[in-house]
Predict the 3D structure of the following.
Amino acid sequence: MAKLVTDVVCPFCGTLCDDLEVSVTDDGKKILDVYNACAIGAEKFLHSQASDRITRPRMQDEDGNWKDVSYDEAVEYTAKILADAKKPLMYGWSSTNCESQAVGTQIGEVTGAIMDNTATVCHGTTLIAVQDVGIPSCTLGEVVNRADRIVFWGCNPAHAHPRHMSRYSIYPRGFFTGKGQKSRKLVVIDPRCTDTSKLADYHLQIEQGRDYELFDAFRVAFKGEKLPDTVAGIPKKTIYEVAETMKSGRFGIIFFGMGVTQSLSKNHNIDAAISVTRDLNDYSKWSIMPMRGHYNVTGSGEVWGWLHGFPFALDLSRGFARYNPGDTTSNDLLRRDEVDAVFVLGSDPGAHFPFGSVKKIWGLPSVCIDPHITPTSAVCKLHVPVAFVGVETGGCAYRMDNVPIECRKVVEPPEGMLTDEEFLKKVLTRVKELKGA
Amino acid sequence: MVPKIKLNLISGRTIQQGVSMEGGKEKPAYRNACGIIEIDPADFKKLGAWRNTNVRVTSTFGSVVVKAIEATQGPHPGLGWIPMGPWANQVINPNTYSTGMPTFKGTPVDVEAASDEEVLDSITLITRAVRGEL
Amino acid sequence: MAEYLIRNGFVYDPVLGIDGDKKDIAVKDGKIVETTALSKPTEINAAGMTVMAAGVDVHAHVAGPKVCVGRNFRPEDKLFNSTPQAGIKRMEGGFSVPTTLRTGYNYARMGYGFVMEAAMPPLFARHVHEEIRDTPIIDEAALPVFGNNWFVLEYLKNKEIENTAAYIAWLLRVTKGFGIKNVNPGGTEAWGWGMNCETVNDVVPYFEITPAEIIRGLIEANEYLGLPHCMHVHGNSLGEPGNYTVTLDTLKQAEGYTAKNDFGRDTVLHHTHLQFHSYGGTSYSSKGFESKSKEVMDYVNKQDNITFDLGVVTLDETTTMTADGPFEHHLSHMNHLKWANVDVELETAAGVVPFIYNPKSYIAGAQWAVGIELGLYAKDMMKTYITTDHPNAGPFTRYPRVIKWLMSRAAREHMLEKELKYGDSIRNTCYIGEIDRELTLFEIAQMTRAGPAKVLGLSHMFGSLRPGCEGDVAIYPYNPEAIDPSRDPELIERAFSTAQYLIKGGEMVVKEGDIVSNGSKRTFWVDCTTSENPQVQRDISEKFKRYYSVTEANYEVSGHHYVPNPYVIEVDASQ
């Protein structure tokens, strides 16, 4: 027999779908099947059930031999490396709930840590651009109900946010958009012909890294001014035509991703993208939204925002909060040997940081708190497996449009396993003792 | 002399990367999804290699062996695509230029056939690389 | 719990009619008690100091999504003002949009005990509550916004007050909200298409209803339910020269309505930050602008069912933020600074723009004058409240400065003569130069405690030192016998900025000016019972199924981690 848990929130990407259904055994211990999820989301739920899952903390020696340790020993090691460090890096925070982020921030306050989240390799440059020029945006339901122009720039939701198009952007029928896809024009700007661009009314196959120029060309085109024959590989005729399509919509939105944030020019690309959106508001109604990756990277920016005023790259080492990207960001700190301990929770820098940074983590006292075996756990001295947030414990997460949603607990974690929040609370208590705070 | 081609490397998500990542990064499926480089047919011609052979990708910043496959979301002549992950991150440009953001997209790389070399799984790749064993 | 006996202070309590008499105040078990009820109190010598009930703020933007946008997109707001952890006090940062930690501490330092978050977008209610949870010491509540909500627009278009009320009761329950906020009625929905409603008679696109109908409908629904607070409106055309006629039209919508509730509230419409709504003229230049504070107050003073707060411009660099989306867009075109906007499906919008009220500009000085004038023209100080629409007209930490301006003509003259570049033009186009009135401490206590507590329906708990009220007492280093406001106005500001003591809920949280406890803050919300309404239930399910981006089951704020320490006010509207 099975029971069905409905309205389940998917803890994978920033789309934060909340309409999943999960069937579980009557005793609430085993997931049997996952409905409505994309392939990635379903795998996340199902993999939590893997029989070879690590369920106890373990430490490795210099030769890479692992030995199981107790949670108490793990707490002690974690607290000690953080308390002993002059400037520990506490990185990650994007695949966990806001409650854990808040406890973690207190640990950072007590130990004078650098707190950084995955925005640092994802939409950190967006956050910088927003500080320069602001951001006109909206919730995803506004797109459903009003949007007749959709632009995907440097993002590929068909792969990275698989249900985005059906739930929010291209297909849904909303209040003022009863014809669904038929009522919308889709523009995709990408150097590749992606599975997203195949759906577009216009695909502008831009020369990689020339986004800034094309954004600027649009601003010129809106005003009807002269353009060179091609910009970023796009003929001017196409640019004028797409500009007119954008201006003529009633409600439009630009979704953008790593193609814009990680290419050279970085925050300046987004600065230009936001300026395009501002300009368009002189003709009709336009919004712009970053396609946030981790399901709760947005939340960690909010938690740090309300506690300390900055969305990432938070430096608490001087006793109060500072922020200076390039200086207080993880990869810069690691490459310059400026941190002396590394704590990772809710992310995998081992896989997703440039290798030079990973090598630095390996050379430092380090702990990785993650349900999975990952390249990060492989290079950290201590690996602490924990319950999956959104599967085995609940908590608050923020969608890419900043809407907070409460994740659901679907099944019990394996016996004796701690959640992020429980583990962090123990560490907090211990660092306070060690620091005499 | 093995022909070498120059490509502009970008990395990013794919659905297979996402699925296999959640299925366990220590598993072969993750290597099969991310230890690859997608190359345009035109560039394959220049490379003079078969589809699905291993190649060595080298930049100013590092070098890695991955399997070359034909572009799934092409054509994109001149562009190479390695899904985000430890393989791509061996070679991408780590400079942040004071933004905090490494330059994950737009790294010039050389690609050459390396059919005798092995594509390592993620854990082996990273644990051997940090020890300087690659 | 500790007992406190506050001895020999000059006590101001408008509710008890105490006007500076030397009295002892007793606190026990979290409440004010008779002095005879104490057994072994800790004595606080308040001789030479002013004793009042803790302050109550009727309107400030201190928690939630747009506040956090303001924080995160203004790193410059934290420059050179962060302070480290000390004792139990955590790190602080920020000026116009301080962190939640600093927000709580700064209110406590000013002797405040309760703050109303003035605009909660329902879809973001969890965020508001998480920030409230992480704001130490002060009790807080939040007003969900209703004036552009599709349910409300549709019900009111059909004059369905009962359905509107049932929906409001449901929404207050699921968002843990306190009352009805109504921002730029209809105009923010129009902003969904980049448009606005500029008068109370402009028709909302598609919904075919006017702001006037929305205001009246929400007043009726509010009184149908008998909520503690009244309908709390931010009228159309905020900040526009000549908008005072729109304001008068807005206020007139309250005519004919009387308050129906069990909370001692006797007004039906609260107009917030009236300063922004009392402008004459046609432009922001000294040749085109004039104050209409007198005209607005001539009307307000004749009504007995209206309250308002000032929204005084404090001449700072600050961060504006409001659910009035079109206004912020307009503002960003005036000052060309960064602009953030968030449109919220089916419900509302918000905009955020930094703003510098430059004392060297004419208009900032004139705006300052308008706000002060409203306070000085007001007849009933129980219906007139001090705010800065934090952080829109200035940060809440400037309340003591506003008190100084209200209490001291000399301080105002100093502004006009020394601080403001265009003092003469301001005298010519505003009323401020003609007004001699200096408010008293008794009147200040009405405007900052007794009055706001009453309009929020919380006079049984806050705003007075009557036995039975919450043990919330502020003690200021201000000796009314020794200080002459006309000679030493700066002492007023200093005293009200730094309470010597604050006892909150019977616990000492500020001692000799220092934060000594993180308190035990509560979140207030209103649980209103209505009779079953299957139609509204059906409409809710339908809207969630078809138009919301979250499911109905994932909308409700529930769980200890959002509201760990609730204080629920129950209202029975089922009869």
In short: Chain A touches chain C through 65 residues (CB under 8 Å). Chain A has 17 helices and 22 strands. Chain A has a mean pLDDT of 97.
